[in-house]
Each structure stands twice: as structure tokens, then as C-alpha cells.
Amino acid sequence: MSWRSLLIFGVRLSCAALVLSVLLVANSCLPQAPTTAGGRNLTVYGFSVMKESLEKAIFPAFAAKWKQEHGEDVKFTSSFAGSETVTNQIIQGVEADVAILSIERDVDRLKPGGFVTSDWRQLPAQGIVNKTPFVILVRRGNPKGIHDFPDLAKPGVRVIHPDPVSSGGAQWSILAIYGSELIKSEKETGKRDEARALNTLRAIWRNVIATPGSAREARTQFETGYSDALITYELEAILMKQARADVEIVVPQATIFSEHPTAIIDRNITNEERPLVNAFLQYLWTDEAQRAFVQYHFRSVTNEELNKENKEFAEIKMPFYVKDLGGWSKAYPEIIERIWRDQVQKSK
After folding, report:
1. Architecture of the domain defined by 40-130+259-306
2. Is 150 helix (H, G, I), strand (E, B) or coil?
3. Residues 218-262: pLDDT tens digits?
4. Can you give the pTM of this predicted structure?
5. Phi–psi pair at 308, nearest 5 degrees
6. CATH number of the domain at 131-258+315-347, please?
7. Which member of 59, 165, 173, 292 has the greatest number of CB atoms within 10 A?
8. Displacement of CA 73 from its chain's centroid (Å)
9. In terms of Cα–Cα distance, which of 159, 189, 121 is closest to 328?
10. What are the domain boundaries of the chain?
């Protein structure tokens, strides 16, 4: 081989090595699910507050059921973060089998790339696995006199609110505040007062002093004694009370029930894996699993009798759902984007 051929061969080999190293570095930047030696493995990515109910109750119970029926061990790999963050991780390439998310818009974001191709609405309860209302956490004794969402706009009240850019819980909270004023004004006058709702949301947002990335991060920050109030899932509030935190729960007069969808990440599932994944999803709507959710302070979506078993659940005087705001296809662009992002956030 001539010296010229050797030189060309060397350049090509160097380029190939460079491309390979770039690909390896890029792949290492993506969250990676660990592999499990022996048995079967299911990888579940969930929004932050699903952690306790899944890891302490749902996963072990399903694994025991599968072992009894099929003689196989099932182990779980799980990861939890803000719903928007989890969705972005899946889009980036993590090998999730199942996603349990805070908002259905995040499931819809997984469709264009082919991550979710099956119709998740064909699952039981139209794909909604559990629900919970939004409440306000305050310090013991309620020193700021907070009794409803508008009280969070009082001078001197410091509010922690997760970031709607990364957190599905934060988006539910925005809908809770804004929608609450719509529902109350409609009951009082027969007409929804959008100006009243906007002014209330804007006034509360001026008092927001921190925007953590997820509902769980917001709770952690509140637990340190930072701020006067936190808008959060009812289950997070109950967990804090059970941990003997120095807090009280304030139930707004009108508040939203968040509803949490689940979906198979079809792009990552082989034909061999699908029966196990399908069985796990169907299990989530059994009375056994729904009772476990209730035990961990989510409300059942299939059996209201189970909800009576949790004495910590508050009575909501004027409950509403995202469907009462036109569904996510309307609520997100009109309330989260046009009102919160373009008017409230920019005016702070």
C-alpha cells in the first residue's frame, strides 16, 4: 500500500473513531434505565407524587400476583420527576415501558414521535388512573388568615408554586386558581367572570417567591419553613400532616380535581414484553390497586366506595374538572399559555 493510501486510510479511521465517540457521549447524556439480571423487568416513569403509591404498594402487589399466576419474578425500574420533564426524557430516548403522567397533554406530546401509538383512552376509566383535588397548605394556626385562593394575594403572603414549564402539577394549580373564580362567579351571577379570574391569578402570582421544578420539590422547599403557603395536590398535604409537619390544610371553596393518565410507550415494547405490560396496566384499575391508591391519598376513579375508606379526604363544596374548562385542548392554549404565560408571568 502506498504512503498516500495509508494516509487516506488513517484519516478515514480517525473520522470514524471521532463519530463513534460523539455518538457515545450523546447517548450517555440521556437518562438510562438499569437492566435487571434474571426474571422480567418493567420500567415505569411517573410524575413526582406517584412515587410512594407505586413503589410501596402497586409494584410489590403486582409482582406477587404475576409470580403466583405465571411463576416469573417481575422487578421494576422507576423514575419520577415533573410530568413535563418525564415526557421530555421519554422523547429523548429513555427506555420507559409505561408512563403515568400528571396531564393528558403530555401523553399527546408522545404521539408525534411514535412513542405512543395505541389509543390510551381505550383503557379503563378512559386512561385516567386516579385523581386528587388541589388544596392550600399554610403554617399551623394559619397566621396569614388564608381561607381561599384569593387570600393568597394579600400583601405580605409569600407563596411557593411549582414551575408550569416543567410541572404538570403547576399547570393544574393554575387551572385551579383561575377556574375557581370562574366557577364561583358563575354560581353567584350566572356568568363566568374572566376578568375576575385573571385579576386573581395575576395578584397571587405577584406573591410567588419560588418556582421549583415539580410538585414534590415545592413540597420539600415548603417543609424547610420557606414561605407562607403552597398550592398542591391534596395527597401531598395529607402526607405532610401525617409526617407531623407544622402545617394546616385549607380547602378552597371551589377547586379542580387533577386526573392522571397512563400510557404504554409502544415504541419501546417488543411483542414478547407486551403481555406483561398490558397486564400491569389493567391491574391499575382493579379494586386492589385502586384501594392502594386511596391508601396513599389518591382518590379512586372506578369505585367511590373505596374513597370512603380514607377519612383524611376533604369535602369539596364546588368541585370541577378540566372538562369544565373545555378540556386540555382548550385549557392549555387559552389559560396556561394565553393567560398565565403571556399576561400573568410577563407582567410580574
Report:
1. 3-Layer(aba) Sandwich (3.40)
2. helix
3. 999 999 989 999 999 999 999 988 888 899 999 999 999 999 999
4. 0.85
5. -70, -15
6. 3.40.190.10
7. 173
8. 28
9. 121
10. 40-130+259-306, 131-258+315-347
